[in-house]
Design brief:
6 domains; 6-stranded antiparallel sheet; 4 helices; about 40% strand; Jelly Rolls; mainly beta; Immunoglobulin-like; about 850 residues
Length: about 850
């Protein structure tokens, strides 16, 4: 008994064409008819060195039989009929042989109910056009009756006078025999020319490998007996017999088992009592092999290595679209069930074997034969067209799981015009563990592509820069999307993510090469700040996550109408500078406002020029202020105290002209949350130039529609406060008094504090009518702030220290006189002192 220990990749041999049969001697000329026939009749070849007078693709004349050969393999069949006798001419190269002979296997099979034999004759010639010597029968005249026969071996001697001819031609004539009715069909297989030696050596096992999760293949060194090869007791795998054994292609046995085999586990296989076709038995053999399931292809083990979306004629490369695959795995795989697809169509790949390190070209069947010279090519009859404008190509396994995926775009070529210049796109590093989209570049090879070989841009240099954790946001109450500065290896552990307060991660999945989605076991509470810390992740080059690995996160509430208000507006900016609209969160909640809008009103007071304030999620913190502008950098230069983090960039703002308009703030449903109609008249009357001066809201609890609720920003605060507290903000609302003046002393020129004073009122019920007037201490009427106006329960007026003619009043004491009338007859009169001051 022979005992062998091996792992398949140490000893397998490639048997892509099983038609080749090795025998003793050197380079015998063989043909097993496994290669598809070219449908070409004489004088053209239908196989190398083989000619036929009428080659067909069907089941008449000369054709390839799919299962009629030895042991169910392919073979050559000829069907003589009353109007057709078949003729084959085989070109034999007589070089380097000692005593060459021809050996072939032949039989007849029953065709219809007639009794005519197929009469087979052979003759020899030195040229393809003859002359040929006198024909002789193969066997005897009636050797091939119209019946189902077993294959028999025939051996032909080289006739005298032809022994030393360097080139011989053997003619086989298959004729319509005498009798009645139909004629037998004649089949030939395993043709061989050369030094033929008597076979007295038993078969050997050359390879064992997995075929699927429950099946293995055994490759023998020569064709073996069909009957003995299928006896189950001749095989044992770890002491267990298979449930099925079948012989395919003469020397390849499939064994099936009840249960799944364990991947990467070593198994002991015992094989005995297997003879070859000459009756020589295999010596009882025990071998050990490592099992791999060739239908399991892990992600990135086979990569889309190159693609040609836009070939061109009249170049050295064929005018053919193609995809190149490169297999990086450690064991052979089968393509059966795999598919590759574009965004519009998909095609299945044939069940062929691919070996470690092998390049595989996929091309359309209509033109792809031209690609054969560049390497192993698989032709597909249903070809998904590769769009020049960009697309996504995907390779999936038989379970629809993505093995590899590439997105390409004209930018990969470096511009819109380059996709049409017939340069393929190549992957720089096929071993890169993440998506290759960013590393896909045009070929620099002289052919403009490298099908079937190493890419011209091949570069294994790693990126040594550690990735950083950039951002995170909750996409629902059970999902969190986190983003990194570079591609992250998608193989992550749940233990890499920790939260304070605690959140339990149930699973993760890759959204893109830089984004991971975390799924939680339980819903996340709103408005609660969490600290996420990430450890143990690596990027696609193996670099560990950098030091910046923590984020504060919160699941925000949906902003309601009135939660977000307009707080400041710059509509007349400095020359060359941007405008801004400042918004404020007036709640104690974190709010999601990414889908909110700014707009204006047209001449008919209809909503117009609606612009989104963000293209993605946007969370505003409790009481946070954000200034929305088209140029944050310039705004920061204009107002240096503005915090950059509070300046929100947008591509465009609605039109807010200097002459005046209405700013409208809306939610995602375009419902109005706040609006402000502005004009130059709202600025301080003593302000000589309003360019670069914003209007600030005085009270968040008073309506934006009140003109008195807006005032020019203070000169001492740069004339605008984007992203920070308003300079003219009333600090606290009041509830304990009917009338309050704030401040009671002010300087209209702004040399000492605020440039105006605010008169606020609060009433116990609506329906009061009020008059607010300013008098000098001598009783002269200076200014009327309100005359018999219907009041709400609260409100405000402002006085900028000017009289009714717009002139500045003198410094000194003034009296606010308020008269309040209630419809039921109640009257209130209130007097308050206010001081106009100046810088000393």
């Amino acid at each position: 008994m022979v005992r062998i220990f091996f792992v398949w990749w140490f000893c397998y041999f490639t048997f892509l064409n099983l038609s080749v049969v090795f025998s003793q001697g050197i380079d015998n000329q063989t043909q097993g008819f496994e290669t598809d026939f070219m449908i070409e009749s004489f004088p053209d070849e239908f196989l190398d060195n083989w000619y036929g007078n009428s080659i067909r693709s069907g089941s008449s004349r000369i054709f390839q039989t799919v299962e009629g050969g030895k042991n169910g393999s392919k073979g050559l069949a000829i069907q003589p009929i009353s109007t057709f006798n078949g003729e084959l001419i085989i070109h034999l190269v007589n070089s380097g042989f000692g005593d060459p002979k021809v050996k072939l296997w032949a039989k007849s099979t029953k065709n219809g109910s007639g009794n005519r034999p197929a009469q087979v004759k052979y003759s020899w010639g030195k040229t393809i056009d003859g002359p040929f010597d006198e024909p002789s029968f193969l066997g005897d005249k009636d050797e091939f009756q119209n019946e189902n026969q077993e294959f028999r071996q025939f051996e032909l001697e080289i006739p005298v006078g032809f022994e030393n001819a360097p080139s011989l031609f053997l003619s086989l004539q298959i004729e319509y025999g005498s009798g009645s009715g139909t004629c037998a069909r004649w089949i030939m297989d395993d043709f061989e020319f050369g030094d033929i030696f008597e076979d007295n050596i038993g078969p050997e096992i050359e390879m064992v490998r997995g075929f699927d999760e429950k099946e293995i293949q055994i490759q023998f060194s020569e064709p073996i007996d069909l009957v003995f090869s299928e006896f189950l007791f001749n095989y044992q795998l770890n002491g267990l017999e298979p449930i099925n054994a079948s012989l395919e292609a003469d020397s390849l046995v499939h064994l099936s088992f009840d249960s799944k085999l364990d991947k990467e586990v070593f198994y002991e296989l015992k094989v005995s009592q297997i003879p070859d076709l000459a009756g020589n038995f295999l010596e009882d053999t025990t071998l050990t092999f490592q099992f791999f399931d060739p239908t399991v292809i892990p992600a990135k083990n086979m990569v889309i290595n190159e693609l040609m979306p836009s070939p061109k004629p009249e170049l050295d490369l064929p005018n053919v679209e193609f995809i190149e695959l490169y297999y990086l795995g450690d064991y052979p795989i089968r393509l059966g069930g795999l598919s590759w697809a574009t965004s519009k169509s998909e095609v299945l790949l044939p069940d062929e074997w691919v070996y470690p390190g092998e390049y595989l070209i996929l091309a359309p069947e209509s033109h792809g034969e031209e690609m054969n010279k560049f390497g192993r090519t698989i032709l597909l009859d249903s070809w998904p067209t590769l769009l020049n404008s960009g697309d996504q190509v995907t390779l999936k396994d038989d379970q629809r799981i993505v093995i590899d995926q590439l997105k390409y775009h004209p930018s990969n070529w470096g511009g819109e015009e380059f996709p049409n210049e017939a340069y393929s796109l190549e992957v720089k590093n096929p071993f890169y563990a993440c998506a290759q989209d960013e590393l896909l570049v045009p070929s620099i090879d002289p052919l403009r592509a490298t099908p079937g070989r190493q890419n011209s841009v091949y570069n294994l240099s790693p990126d040594l820069e550690a990735p950083q954790l950039l951002s995170g946001r909750f996409t629902s109450d059970k999902e969190l999307l986190i983003e990194f500065s570079g591609p992250i290896n998608p193989k992550v552990s749940l233990s890499s993510f920790s939260f304070d307060p605690f959140l339990k991660v149930d699973s993760t999945y890759e959204v893109s090469s830089r984004q991971l989605q975390l799924i939680f076991e339980e819903p996340v509470p709103e408005n609660l700040v969490f600290l996420l810390t990430v450890n143990g992740l690596i990027d696609c080059w193996g670099n560990s996550l950098g030091k910046n690995n923590s984020l504060q996160l919160v699941l925000p509430k949906t902003a309601l109408l009135g939660d977000l208000l307009i707080n400041e507006l710059l509509f007349h900016p400095k020359t060359g500078s941007p405008k801004f609209v400042e918004l404020i969160n007036v709640t104690d909640n974190y709010l999601e406002i990414g889908s909110w809008y700014l707009g204006n009103l047209d001449d008919e007071d209809k909503l117009d020029q609606v612009k989104s304030i963000s293209q993605s999620s946007l969370i505003i913190s409790p009481n946070e202020i954000l200034a929305v502008t088209t140029d944050p950098d310039q705004l920061k230069l204009d107002y240096p105290r503005a915090p950059p983090s509070k300046l929100l960039p947008v591509k465009t703002l609605p039109s807010y002209p200097i002459a005046g308009a209405t700013v409208v703030l809306m939610n995602s449903e375009l419902e109005v949350s706040d609006q402000f109609t502005y004009s130059e008249d709202l600025h301080h009357p003593l302000l000589k130039d309003t360019k670069g001066v914003s209007l600030e809201r005085l009270s968040l609890k008073s309506s934006a529609s009140l003109n008195s609720n807006w005032h020019s920003a203070s000169a001492g605060e740069e004339f605008a406060t984007p992203g920070r507290l308003n300079s003219q903000l009333i600090p606290d609302e009041f509830f304990e008094r009917v009338i309050q003046i704030d401040p009671e002393v002010f300087d209209p020129e702004g040399n000492n504090g605020q440039t105006f004073t605010t008169i606020r009122y609060q009433l116990d019920q609506p329906g009061w009518i009020g008059t607010f007037k300013i008098y000098s201490v001598s009783g002269q009427l200076i200014q009327v702030l309100a005359q018999n106006e219907i009041l709400g329960t609260n409100g405000l007026y402002t006085w900028s220290g000017v009289d009714m003619n717009g002139g500045r009043v003198r410094i000194g004491y003034y009296v606010l006189f308020v008269e309040l009338y209630e419809l039921g007859g109640e009257v209130k009169q209130i007097k308050k002192t206010v001081v106009v001051a100046t810088q000393l």
